[in-house]
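Dear Dr. K.,

Following up on our conversation at the group meeting, I've run the structure prediction for Acyl-CoA dehydrogenase family protein from Streptomyces tauricus. I'm pasting the input sequence below exactly as I used it, so you can double-check it against your construct before we proceed with anything downstream. Let me know if the numbering doesn't match what you have in your notebook.
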Amino acid sequence: MSSSPSPSSKLPPFDAGDPLGVDDLLSVEDLAVRDTVRAWAADRVLPYVAEWYEQGELPGIRELARELGGLGALGMSLDGYGCAGASAVQYGLACLELEAADSGIRSLVSVQGSLAMYAIHRFGSEEQKQTWLPRMASGEVIGCFGLTEPDHGSDPAGMRTYAKRDGGDWVLTGRKMWITNGSVAGVAVVWAQTDDGIRGFVVPTDRPGFSAPEIKHKWSLRASVTSELVLDEVRLPADAVLPEVTGLKGPLSCLSHARYGIVWGAMGAARASFEAAVEYAKTREQFGRPIGGFQLTQAKLADMAVELHKGILLAHHLGRRMDAGRLRPEQVSFGKLNNVREAIEICRTARTILGANGISLEYPVMRHATNLESVLTYEGTVEMHQLVLGKALTGLDAFR
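The predicted structure tokens came back this morning:
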């Protein structure tokens, strides 16, 4: 029978940055991954991201991609072909640190690794894997993922992009919308209707008929490249199709992998906003004392801390399940629904603590809040994840 610590045993000090002691659950390797990505983001993103956001651009994206490839952050949880083969938890920690800098940087990594590379790695031929994955893992080639269409977002089964056979070739025609990395990508994984059902295609972006005009005038994810994909009778060889999947199972499994990264990433945006609010509350004085000394402010900070660290614990739990091969899509929906929704509320509460300064780009809060409005919608809206859980809980399908 194990003995309990005596009352005189010395407890570790309370850590305001890790109030639940979650770091105790992380291995030395986990912490090394986290700290490496955090240091990179502090050096290469944080000093510049407010200006990028204000200008609505992500300059030097190809250089950033190569640096992220050098860190092993692209296709991080995939094995072989130059990929790092990291654990799901390590990939999640990287997403958290990247999104603590900016959601646009995490989106670059998620789309590259969890959507485009994951699709090729899981469903591609050996030739497709050898051709694309090593160069994508290094950041030499940027990828994008074409699923959403102008008239079909939450219902991808209704997509109109079509691939028809023409002799030994495929010919793709259609449009995709809100595609991260689109105009800088060297390869696009495009999903299209065929006579045999929905299929995925590996499309080099230099093919005649392919174009990717960048979408401007965004008020969210401004430090990110977002494009439309236009496919005007793009001719591809027979071996451009992903051979190992037919139907919606293909794109939906990719989305589940990307959503997992969002579960972690959203907590990074929340953490950055929370930390900004704590520091501001300790130094901003009103009525002759720091506002952090007032009960209403402390109540806000306490509630924010509870939701932030509950979300991190949830992400960690899902990561361990993924590493054990036991993570279900419904559980990913659980995490995405909760963590993004709570992250937005943390950012909004942080904004109230900063007052008018909360809308200034001198602080990260409003930038994170507006970015999360996009994160709330992409990879499945709140309503879609509610219905996924509703179906799982009741056994009744309410989608239609």
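Two things stood out to me. The chain has three domains: 22-137, 143-240, 249-394. Residues 213 and 228 are 6 Å apart (CA to CA).

Best regards,
J.T.
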